[in-house]
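Take a protein:
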Amino acid sequence: MSPATPDGVSVETSKSGPSPGQDQEPAPEFGRGLPDPSPAGPTEPSTLAEPELSVPPPAPRPESEAEPDADAPPLPAAPLPAAASPAPAAAGADEEPLPVPGPPKKVRLRRTRRFFRRPTVRVISALAGVFVVWVAFSAGQATFANSGQGAAANLAEWARDHYLGPIVTFGEWLSYNPPKVGGKPSMSLAVPKGEQVTPVAVTKPKRHRKEFVPDIPATLKSLAGKPITGEGQWRVVEKVKGEPAILTTFLRDATYTSYVNGIASIDQRLVRFFLRPGYEDPGYGNWKAPFDVPAGSRTGLLATFNGGFKISDAGGGFYLNGVHYDALVNGAASVVYYKNGTIKIGQWGRDFRMNPSIAGVRQNLKLLVDHGKISPNLNSDIETGWGATLGGGYFVWRSGLGITSDGRIVYVYGPALDVQDLAELLRRAGAVEGMQMDINPAWMKFDYYQVDGHPGDPTPVPLLPSQQPSPYSYYDPSTRDFTAVYAR
């Protein structure tokens, strides 16, 4: 039986006997007040066994935690519990992903602020801001100018003037829709009552006084084969002193038969032609002519039509009332305006030279028709030789001007023409010399004017209802040059 200490700790004495050769001594008893058996300093080793504390045996391990068999394969290690693992969501509850920590915003902001505080960056930013404001103001002012050709055309023209032509061409290419093959016109080509006209047979006058004989051309042959009602038949839209001064007709396109081309024939014996500058092209100068047909100068106005390409792209020059804009170029197709109100069309340097009788000259590219024959070079270098078209499409709005052997002036235009078709229209209308004028829808138009009881302010009527610019556009200052036709 192990004696209990006063502290209640059971102490067992060694039961092992003495070593052989030693005397057996009784074990000392320790009680309350006895000194600590362990001396403070070094002592001789004691032969007595030290008392052992009585520790209860460990509880038996459950079978599930029993020692694994040595021959059994090792079990996988159990995963350590997460330090801050969230409690599992209740069954059926929506599980939300844990928020992903974002970038250190404060650090980025500090770096950005330091970057923009640099003097060089501040100067560059200020210059860029001034440039953006200037571009926005300039483009906006040009876009919404009252030029009669629409905001889109104004913006495109501004961009081309500021070296952004390739971007404009690419945008036009994206939006270009080729014309539809075949079909019927959406407008009637029948001649209205009261506008019919037939060629007049020339007879020998009975009196010595020369009789005025109207110049009525023959009916034009259709490009599309069998003509429809009214196609190619001339009608009177303007008279001077009771005589037919301006005649018009329509011809369908040979391939795109739903598209209609307009043709006008003008008798120079009854009218006067005047060249008008544009306030952007050729621009301001001492032209001695207005940029429009202003109020107070519209009495006797019969017709107006567009000029040529921008002069910088026309391959020629512009001359009016003693003032030049770019030099006139020998070999260029030219419309020559004489001081007596007549005009002629031909090649500058071959057919015309500057003389005191000339009031104005408008040059544009090369002749399409020369001495009654179509130029053999029309199908080569179309883009560079005959103008950049919308999206690079060859069949677009085009216009042309020509002169017949008897001096009539013919104007032709249409929405789906290539250069060859334009030349064929000019020749079919009787032109022996002909040239291309402007192209693309925003910059071409032919309008004639009806008095309707207001001779000082006649009403403009478009020859083709599908033309894009407003018929009133030349009543306001025009960005480009044009021609005004008055009664003699």
